[in-house]
Amino acid sequence: MAENIEKFLNRVGEAAEQSTLVKVTLSKPASKHDDLRNIYVKPVLIKEKLLFAFTYHYERRDEVKNYDAAQMLETLREMLPERFFNAVLFTVSEDITLLVSSKGKATIQTKKVQESREQNLDHDKQKNRLLNPANPWWYQLGLTTREGKITADMQHKFKQIYKYAEIVESLVKPMKFDDTVHIADMGAGKGYLTFALHELLTQRLNLDVDIKGVEIRPDLVLKINEIIQSDHLKGLEFVESSIEAYRPEKLDVLIALHACNTATDDRASRRVPT
Ligand SMILES: C[S@@+](CC[C@H](N)C(=O)[O-])C[C@H]1O[C@@H](n2cnc3c(N)ncnc32)[C@H](O)[C@@H]1O
Fold first, then answer.
1. Atom number in ligand 1 closest to CA 241
2. How far apart, in whole angstroms, are the C-alpha atoms of residue 17 and residue 62?
3. How far, in Å, is the centroid of ligand 1 from the Cα of 175?
4. Is the pLDDT of residue 234 over 70?
5. Same domain for 259 and 132
6. What pLDDT, in 10s, does the model give residues 178-198?
């Protein structure tokens, strides 16, 4: 019933006005062919103005748009029930769930939360991120705009790179290093993972590193070394070499990911921990 949808939207409007809105989620797309999977809305303070950040989760990318309270309600009204059948409003004290059946019947359920929550208006997530897309090399490598926003067609790639950083962080964090860590990234390609590794280890984990990206293609090596030099990155260098010919003086960690042709086998024959 449209009445319950209006009732739900009124509750969202009240929560926004009373600063009790923690988040709103929209899920269960009305069409299974819809590329938009769900939407996550949270209040944010931008330049001292209260806005509502909509994160649109598409199949292979995310998009964020900020709206004021009126635009937020208008956007939710357009989405319910045309695009989504489920919506949940999380306030500091209650969860209010809107469920629309395939026949269009809308019901509302309200549940008090056990422990009261707080509204989080923090917009600056950068400081807690393992990788900062605003760093210039992500633009130079072709993943972001000049302003440091991940481009639409690189969202999926950046997610993969970020996942890699998370895995590496969980492995490295418990370890202790007293000296420079010597790392070879075999078949480093365009350098996405090599830069992610360098950023994570130096900027997040404060390690002293000597990372060599070993790559057989001279054009890539030249281009990447130019980026490294322009950003004055210490402890990172690309080396033009085949894996089989590469002989580092020191090596603590060897990485070989998605290497093509015989590259994966070649690094296996190096007998170094990977
Ligand atoms: C698919 S890319 C992977 C890049 C990166 N490791 C990643 O996971 O995103 C594989 C790279 O390995 C390089 N490569 C393949 N065989 C190689 C070899 N024998 N020695 C050095 N580089 C090699 C290719 O030129 C290519 O740039």
1. 21
2. 27
3. 28
4. yes
5. yes
6. 899 999 999 999 999 999 999
Q: Which residues on neighbouring strands pair with residue 94, listed in sequence order?
A: 112
Q: Determine which residue's CA is closest to atom 14 belonging to ligand 1.
A: 187
Q: Give the Cα-Cα-Cα angle 60, 30, 98 (nearest 5 degrees).
A: 110
What is the spatial distance between Cα 129 and Cα 157, in angstroms, rounded to a whole number? Answer: 16
Phi-psi region of 210 (alpha: psi -120 to 50; beta: other; left: phi over 0): beta
Span 131-139, mean pLDDT? 92
**Residues 52 and 177 occupy one common structural domain:** no
pLDDT at 5 (0 to 100) = 96
Say yes or no: 222 and 182 in one domain. yes
Same domain for 99 and 181, yes or no, is: no
Domain boundary among 70, 99, 123: 123
- Ligand 1 proximal residues by C-beta, below 6 Å: 187-189, 192-193, 214-217, 242-243, 257-263, 266
| Domain span holding position 140 | 127-268
Q: Is the pTM of this model over 0.70?
A: no
Final residue in a domain of this structure, among 61, 94, 123: 123
- If one residue of 192, 215, 247, 261 were mutated to test the ligand 1 pocket, choosing by the most ligand atoms within 8 A of its CB, it would be 215
Is the same domain home to 114 and 144?
Answer: no
Dihedral (Cα; 70, 72, 78, 83), 10-degree rounding = -170
The CA distance from 24 to 14, in Å, is 13
> Number of structural domains, the chain?
2
Task: Give the Å distance between the CA of 271 and the centre of ligand 1.
Answer: 18
